[in-house]
Amino acid sequence: MNILLLGYGKMGKIIGEIAESRGHQIVGRINLENRDELETINPKEVDAIIEFSQPESAVENIKWGLDRGLPVVSGTTGWLSRKAEVEAMANTSEGAFFYASNFSIGVNIFFKVNTYLAKLMNEANEYKIAIEEIHHTEKKDAPSGTAITLAEGIIENISSKSTWDLSGQSADSERSIPITSKRIDPAPGTHIIQYSSDIDTIELIHTAHSRKGFALGAVLVAEWIKDKKGVFSMDDFLSF
Ligand SMILES: NC(=O)C1=CN([C@@H]2O[C@H](COP(=O)(O)OP(=O)(O)OC[C@H]3O[C@@H](n4cnc5c(N)ncnc54)[C@H](O)[C@@H]3O)[C@@H](O)[C@H]2O)C=CC1
Ligand SMILES: O=C(O)C1=N[C@H](C(=O)O)C[C@H](O)C1
């Protein structure tokens, strides 16, 4: 299939490599520096857009694809305050929209383990809950989109928690899950969920060894979303 890359940085480059290794053609590699080239792209020659840019650019990029009736696979994080706006546009367009905070199959298994453990821990109020995420120093947003997804999974299953905050910034520490963001090179992405009490500590940890898992997941989703219309997530794509 023909793939247009909107955002050709660390993620765009490995996505392009993996896509070509799977026999796909990259019909455009667009960055901030060459965004004027986007107008030279013929939408009829694009089967899917894979968008990994920056928080302030994602919505404009996604809308560019939806306006042209194209499927857009977006992995950019840090813009979810406008997600409902984008989903509404996708539902009234001829295109398709797929967002995931993390495209790694391993992290999506981690998401399921997180919600399972949260259901069990809902019966154990003596534990304090905390999340930590560690990424490279070029990351623009904090906390990570993955950490926010983890916090949301806990909030949905533990009645005593209703929000999250960047560690130390919450007015209501009883109802808020603190997220600590650390920036240490070359960390591709580590996420830690901790339940601690006076008696013991339970920790779940996911450590990405490279960006390969994120990139492969995005390419597999692009292959899956071809010719689809509407709004989709990893829950639609995964069989577990
Ligand atoms: N969902 C997931 O599985 C993953 C998501 N991410 C997210 O992907 C995003 C990109 O991450 P990286 O590739 O590491 O960042 P990066 O900074 O290496 O690359 C981003 C690229 O986007 C380009 N860009 C910015 N605005 C643009 C625009 N309006 N049009 C076209 N290109 C534009 C920049 O020139 C840059 O080359 C971040 O938000 C990050 O959190 C990163 C890894 C996995
Ligand atoms: O910026 C990154 O690198 C990553 N960002 C995503 C996030 O914000 O969760 C996914 C992954 O952790 C890598």
Automatic annotation (TrEMBL):
Annotated protein name in UniProt: 4-hydroxy-tetrahydrodipicolinate reductase
Residue ranges crossing the lipid bilayer per the database entry: none
Alphabetic keyword roster: Amino-acid biosynthesis, Diaminopimelate biosynthesis, Lysine biosynthesis, NAD, NADP, Oxidoreductase
EC number: 1.17.1.8
Residue span, Dihydrodipicolinate reductase C-terminal domain: 106-238
Stated family: Belongs to the DapB family.
Encoding gene per record: dapB
Catalytically driven reaction(s): (S)-2,3,4,5-tetrahydrodipicolinate + NAD(+) + H2O = (2S,4S)-4-hydroxy-2,3,4,5-tetrahydrodipicolinate + NADH + H(+); (S)-2,3,4,5-tetrahydrodipicolinate + NADP(+) + H2O = (2S,4S)-4-hydroxy-2,3,4,5-tetrahydrodipicolinate + NADPH + H(+)
Endpoints of the signal sequence: none
Annotated pathway: Amino-acid biosynthesis; L-lysine biosynthesis via DAP pathway; (S)-tetrahydrodipicolinate from L-aspartate: step 4/4
Xref: InterPro entries: DapB_C (IPR022663), DapB_N (IPR000846), DHDPR_bac (IPR023940), NAD(P)-bd_dom_sf (IPR036291)
Enzyme class: oxidoreductase
Domain Dihydrodipicolinate reductase N-terminal: from-to ranges: 1-103
